[in-house]
From TrEMBL:
<feature type="transmembrane region" description="Helical">
    <location>
        <begin position="117"/>
        <end position="142"/>
    </location>
</feature>
<feature type="transmembrane region" description="Helical">
    <location>
        <begin position="154"/>
        <end position="174"/>
    </location>
</feature>
<keyword id="KW-0472">Membrane</keyword>
<protein>
    <submittedName>
        <fullName>7-dehydrocholesterol reductase</fullName>
    </submittedName>
</protein>
<dbReference type="GO" id="GO:0016020">
    <property type="term" value="C:membrane"/>
</dbReference>
<keyword id="KW-0812">Transmembrane</keyword>
<dbReference type="InterPro" id="IPR010721">
    <property type="entry name" value="UstE-like"/>
</dbReference>
<keyword id="KW-1133">Transmembrane helix</keyword>
<dbReference type="Pfam" id="PF06966">
    <property type="entry name" value="DUF1295"/>
</dbReference>
């Protein structure tokens, strides 16, 4: 399926497109708030916070530390005393924090105000915390799955979710890096990038985000949860994010953007949409 509609209305956006400046308070607020998320997820997964929250809403939980503590030969990870499925979920939280912080500090050129920092941080923390709680709830946890991926001792959902998380992370961060390298060249000023991953889909970074979000949820609550999360993120991008950028880029680049939309037919994920 391709997107051939021209944007007609203004959609909600957290940042002002085209305003190129580094907003230091926004950056500090974002990195600080997002940095709290891995600590919160550890408390939920390992310190009994998750079981307590679930009990208050009448849900039964698995043991907070069900399973044998993992051995990775990395003392920093092994000292956490987490079973491998729990550790994978925590690493995803750390990875999402690191990726988003790198994007804002090293790749983003547009103004990112404190209001956006707070909103994005709250959203990501709520989603990550929901994943952790779904992972611990006996009715939704992947640890109750009957089948394990051969040679891993892990449920299929954890292995496939981890792979999806890795692919999505790569697509998002690599595409953003490619765009910055392109934009940093003086000869490309005022041009639309159509090389590398941007020749695959017009908003490949959004597609990557939807994939890793789906993978994160899949590793916590299985195929249904991962599908719902991926569908939600795709819906948000298709109905809000993509139309917003289409309107901005059409105004800024004109015919060049029209050709780009014609030449690169896929919007988020090549071969899918």
């Amino acid at each position: 399926m391709t997107d051939s509609r021209q944007p007609q209305e203004k959609h909600f956006d957290l940042i002002e497109r085209g305003l190129k400046r580094r907003n230091v308070p926004g950056i500090l607020a974002f990195v600080g708030l997002r940095g709290l998320d891995p600590l919160l997820q550890y408390k939920i997964l390992a310190d009994g916070w998750g079981a307590s929250i679930l009990a208050k809403v009448g849900l039964r939980s698995i043991s907070p530390l069900a399973g044998v503590a993992s051995s990775t030969s990395l003392s920093l990870l092994d000292n956490l005393n987490l079973p491998l499925p729990h550790l994978i979920l925590l690493v995803m939280s750390v990875g999402s924090f690191a990726k988003q912080s790198y994007w804002l500090v090293g790749l983003c050129a547009e103004d990112f105000p404190p209001s956006a920092a707070v909103a994005v941080s709250i959203y990501n923390t709520l989603v990550n915390s929901t994943n952790s709680l779904l992972f611990l709830a006996a009715s939704t946890s992947v640890l109750t799955a009957p089948r394990e991926f051969p040679g891993t001792g892990l449920p299929y959902q954890v292995v496939l979710g981890s792979a999806l998380f890795g692919v999505g992370m790569f697509l998002e961060i690599a595409s953003e890096w490619q765009r910055k390298q392109f934009k940093d060249k003086p000869e490309n000023k005022g041009k639309v990038i159509q090389e590398g991953l941007w020749g695959w889909a017009r908003h490949i970074n959004y597609g990557g985000y939807a994939l890793w979000r789906a993978g994160y949820c899949m590793a916590a609550s299985g195929f249904i949860g991962g599908t719902i999360m991926g569908a939600w993120q795709a819906f948000d991008f298709i109905t809000r994010g993509v139309p917003t950028l289409n309107a901005y880029c059409q105004k800024r680049y004109g015919e060049q953007w029209t050709r780009f939309r014609r030449d690169v037919k896929w919007v988020l994920i090549p071969g899918v949409y």
